[in-house]
Specification:
- By secondary structure, the protein is of the alpha/beta class.
- Helix content is 39%, strand content 19%.
- The chain contains 9 helices and 8 strands.
- The protein has helices at residues 12-19, 23-33, 44-58, 72-78, 89-100, 146-162, 167-170, 226-240, 243-251; strands spanning 62-70, 108-111, 114-117, 123-127, 134-138, 175-179, 198-204, 212-220.
- The strands form 2 sheets. It has a 6-stranded mixed beta sheet. It has a two-stranded antiparallel ribbon with strand order 2-3.
- Strand 2 and strand 3 (114-117) form a beta hairpin.
Length: 252
């Protein structure tokens, strides 16, 4: 107060100049000492991805739940299916799509106070290997056998690598799955896609005993509740680990 004892009425600007006369110089010195920064324009693909995810986030109230299990016994059973080539993802996709038939809200979206239901189960598989992130669509997956779904998935991966994907191969999904288990990522929180209520994230870590895996569902709380997701996840886990089911598929 003594600094301003005889200055009468003061403005904030006058106080700032009196107390911090070197502020401007300090800021300039700080800026001049910042290392050079390289600027790179985002790709068109990444820009579209950001817009889509922003649009989805703006219209959802997302939450998530996770269950886990040891996958070694299941992998042992799946080796009986020679054409599956030791892959667990197609099997999980098959079980997931069959279960979705009894849960219509999992293939729906919220808009303006209404739940909008899709009349198809089109699985969208998020893939990001060497050609950038794309969502490969497996249409009407619930009508496909494990063998048919596996072959369609392999065909889609081939198109991804060969750059022969058409618009129909990457649009129209009604629910999305993303798998990071091959990268030894055990837990993660995937982002909901636009006009969808659910995304299934598959995690795993082959460096741990039993090769534990996780199933995480991020969901829109405007449509689904935590209890519904918990019941679904436990049923999904139970059906995935149903070794009798694996044997039946092998016999067929």
């Amino acid at each position: 107060p003594a600094v301003f004892a005889d200055q009468g009425l003061l403005t904030l600007n006058a106080i700032t100049q009196k107390l911090f006369p070197k502020k401007e110089k300090i800021v300039k010195d700080f800026i001049s000492n910042v290392p050079h920064q390289r600027i790179e324009k985002l790709s068109h693909r990444k820009t579209c991805e950001i817009k889509s995810l922003h649009d989805a986030k703006a219209h959802t109230l997302s939450s998530s739940l996770t269950v886990e299990f040891d996958s070694d016994p299941l992998r042992h059973e799946l080796k009986k299916l020679k054409w599956l080539n030791g892959q667990i993802l197609p099997y999980i996709l098959h079980v997931f799509s069959q279960l979705l038939k009894n849960h219509p809200k999992f293939t729906a979206f919220y808009a303006d106070g209404f739940i909008n239901y899709y009349d198809h189960i089109h699985l969208g598989i998020a893939v990001d290997i060497d050609k950038g992130l794309k969502v490969l669509v497996l249409p009407d997956a619930n009508f496909l056998s494990l063998f048919e779904l596996s072959m369609l998935f392999i065909e889609s991966i081939g198109r991804y690598y060969d750059d022969t994907l058409e618009e129909k191969h990457v649009t129209g999904s009604t629910v999305t799955i993303t798998d990071l288990s091959s990268h030894n990522i055990m837990y993660f929180h995937p982002l909901l896609n636009k006009k969808q209520s659910v995304i299934l994230g598959i995690g795993g870590d082959n460096k741990q005993t039993g090769y534990p895996m996780s199933l995480t569902i991020v969901f829109d709380h405007q449509i689904l509740s935590g209890k519904e997701i918990a019941l679904f996840l436990n049923e999904l886990k139970e059906k995935i680990l149903d070794f009798k089911n694996v044997t039946n598929v092998n016999n067929n």
